[in-house]
Write a structure and sequence with these properties.
The complex is a heterodimer of chains A (about 300) and B (about 325). Chain A is α/β, with parallel strands linked by helices and about 300 residues long. Helix content of chain A is about 35%, strand content about 20%. Chain A has 11 helices and 12 strands. Chain A has helices at about 15-30, 45-50, 55-60, 80-90, 100-105, 120-130, 145-155, 175-180, 230-235, 250-260, 265-275; strands at about 5, 35, 65-70, 95, 110-115, 135, 155-170, 200, 205-210, 215-225, 240, 280. An 8-stranded parallel β-barrel of chain A has the order 1-2-3-4-5-6-7-11, surrounded by 4 helices. The longest helix of chain B has 19 residues, at about 280-300. Classes of the chains: A alpha/beta (about 300), B alpha/beta (about 325).
């Protein structure tokens, strides 16, 4: 089966120019078919990048990439809802809804369901597909067995996140601001200091989590290189790479090579480790165990 | 003010149900003894026979019973969730509290006469989301996620006309409910799939010299000094190191308590108050329900509310109005 790669939305708060240049390079060099733009975590960040959006979209589309606009994971007030409404009013955009309020706005037209919507079973997937969802990127904690059931259901295209820190929780409270003894309303955008999130360690020195504003992610980086082929065989046609502050072009090539049978997962995984600066991998969710674990005999 | 806020009270056991009814609950919520509800703890919850008897007791005292079926069915195996809805309907429950779209769809289609509430686990935080659930599945009431200020709740009530129920007392989720995988990341047990968070089966306490280490799975959640009470290692209430200093990064071990803002919640158009604590014993339930009964009735008569009544039983002796106040965010 033919497989496609998606570059997920950038979850972290990179400076606008860095973000723009990142997408320019993705457009020119990355082995991805789709690219998700849009702010998913904190509406306060969006205005900085908005001026660059048209040129980034143009560059990506000129390179033959499908552009998808992702919406906020947690819509917290009426002003944020208005932002989503304005986006949904653009008839030509393919939009990825990350909550049900956004999905409701897109009813009757083709759209994508994002990983922050709780799609755990075929009852929910079937309902969303009847509303117009053509693709669903599944929640990160879904195990392989559930992914296979949903992929085989044929209700809509299934996408699975296979690389990047795992988004574990979203809150109304900003922990980045809190760690800097600031309030969310006067946050001074301190999240910009941590392009891969702020490290959170346990009191006994275990690397545990990464905080990204109101979002909490895993410290480990999800790596499902060893599971790509079994997912493909189960009918999963799309795989999502979530941007981290590393050579993402090289990351996309490694996943493409494994899917194309040009590289063994083990070798690709070693090369991927070389790009991750010692941050450990995990694949536990996929193997129905603790999410932080790396099940070594995968694949 | 004349309208009293409805008091929706927890029952993890038949004994707690009777205590809540006797202490003045308007409604009791409970779950079946399996993974179909979000408090799937060993030794808790109701068999079908327990529910039948509990319904009889509650209805005799003019108290309603809501059945929480608020986890997300496993792909390929929706049967237990569908049976839970069928049995709640068959036994005469007053409402079911649902989170999953597939289950809502099933309940609305198969049991149109069964009242449907939207669980907090569905995380409907906007008027648009609430209207969606009302329009598509005939939801009559929404339990609001603990991410909204009182002003935001008032705006939602004005915009939707759907009844809202808000958390009034007890444990405080600091993450948006139904969208948190911290517990499954550390233990493999997911609130959404298994109905458990930071499960006791994975808790360990370990003495180390003068201190006590609490762990969940392999992760150190806190270290307590000799003079500190060792709290339960719920992941989001742990002490962690960020930016070079150890702190309660997400939230202190604290309880939500809204006794001091009951008037504000009523003025915001809230219909019902939910007391958290299906894992609590019947004495706790009786004490909290009685205090809220008194406070809610006083507020409805326009009298001052004694907001100190529950100070001794809040977690760590500390309490917060949580997200209801803007300063929490």
């Amino acid at each position: 089966m033919e497989t496609r790669l998606t570059l997920g939305p950038l979850l972290f708060n990179w400076p606008a120019e860095k973000r723009r240049d990142f997408y320019f390079r993705i457009a020119d060099e990355a082995a991805v078919d789709s690219v998700c733009l849009g702010e998913v975590v904190c509406a306060k960040r969006a205005p900085f990048f908005d001026p660059h959006l048209p040129e980034v979209m143009e560059r990506l589309q000129a390179a033959g990439k499908e552009v998808v606009h992702s919406t906020l994971a947690l819509i917290n007030n009426a002003a944020e809802m208005e932002g989503v409404r304005a986006l949904a009013a653009e008839p030509d955009f393919l939009i990825e809804a990350n909550d049900l309020a956004s999905a409701a706005l897109l009813r009757g037209r083709p759209h994508v369901i994002g990983p922050f919507v709780n799609v755990y079973n075929e009852g929910t997937l079937g309902y969303l597909a009847r509303q117009g969802a053509v693709r669903a990127c599944l929640p990160v904690e879904l195990p392989a067995a559930s992914i296979a059931v949903l992929a085989r259901s044929g209700l809509c295209d299934i996408e699975v996140m296979v690389f990047g820190r795992l988004p574990l929780a979203i809150s109304a409270r900003c922990y980045h601001a809190r760690a800097h003894n600031l309030h969310k309303d006067g946050c001074r955008y301190v999240c910009e200091q941590d392009p891969d999130g702020m490290d959170v360690d346990s009191l006994t020195g275990q690397s545990f989590l990464a905080v990204n504003g109101t979002q909490t992610l895993s410290y480990t980086v999800s790596n499902l290189l060893g599971d790509l082929r079994s997912m493909r065989d189960a009918g999963v046609g799309r795989f999502r790479l979530s941007p981290q502050d590393t050579d993402m072009v090289a990351v996309t090539r490694l996943f493409r090579e494994v899917l194309d049978g040009r590289q063994e997962p083990g070798v690709a995984s070693e090369r991927l480790a070389g790009l991750m600066d010692g941050v450990p991998f995990s694949n536990g969710f996929h193997h129905a165990t603790e999410g932080l674990r790396m099940v070594e005999d995968a694949g | 003010m004349t309208r009293a806020l409805e008091l929706v009270c927890p029952a993890g056991t038949p004994a707690a149900l009777r205590s809540a009814v006797d202490a003045g609950a308007d409604a009791v919520y409970l779950g079946f003894r399996d993974a179909t509800n979000a408090r799937n703890f060993p030794g808790l919850n109701f068999s079908r026979q327990d529910l039948k008897e509990g319904l009889a007791y509650a209805h005799r005292h003019d108290v309603q019973v809501f059945v929480a079926i608020n986890t997300f069915p496993t792909a390929g195996d929706p049967g237990p969730w569908h049976r839970a809805v069928d049995d709640a309907a068959g036994l005469g429950a007053d409402a079911v509290i649902l989170a999953d779209i597939g289950v809502l769809d099933y309940a609305a289609t198969r049991h149109p006469g069964l009242r449907r509430h939207l669980s907090v686990q569905a995380s409907a935080s906007t008027a648009d989301a609430i209207v969606f659930y009302q329009r598509e599945f005939g939801v009559k009431r929404v339990v609001l996620p603990r991410v909204l200020t009182v002003a935001e709740i008032a705006a939602i009530n004005q915009a939707t006309g759907v009844q809202t129920e808000v958390f009034a007392f007890g444990g405080l989720c600091v993450m948006a409910e139904g969208r948190c995988a911290l517990s499954s990341y550390v233990t493999g047990q997911s609130p959404n799939i298994c109905g458990v968070c930071s499960p006791a089966s994975h808790v360990r306490y370990e003495e180390a010299g003068d201190s006590m280490i609490s762990r969940l799975g392999d992760i150190t959640v806190n270290i307590f000094g000799r003079d500190e009470p060792a709290g339960y290692p719920t992941l989001c209430k742990g002490r962690y190191i960020a930016e070079g200093s150890a702190r309660y990064l997400f939230e202190e071990p604290t309880s939500l308590n809204t006794l001091s803002i009951l008037g504000d919640l009523a003025a915001a158009g809230v219909t019902a108050l939910k007391i958290e604590g299906r894992q609590r014993g019947r004495a706790y339930v009786a004490q909290v329900v009685a205090a809220f009964r008194k406070a809610v009735d006083a507020a409805a008569r326009g009298e001052p509310v004694d907001s100190s009544g529950l100070d001794r039983i809040t977690e760590g002796g500390r309490e917060t109005a949580g997200a209801y106040r803007k300063s929490w965010h």
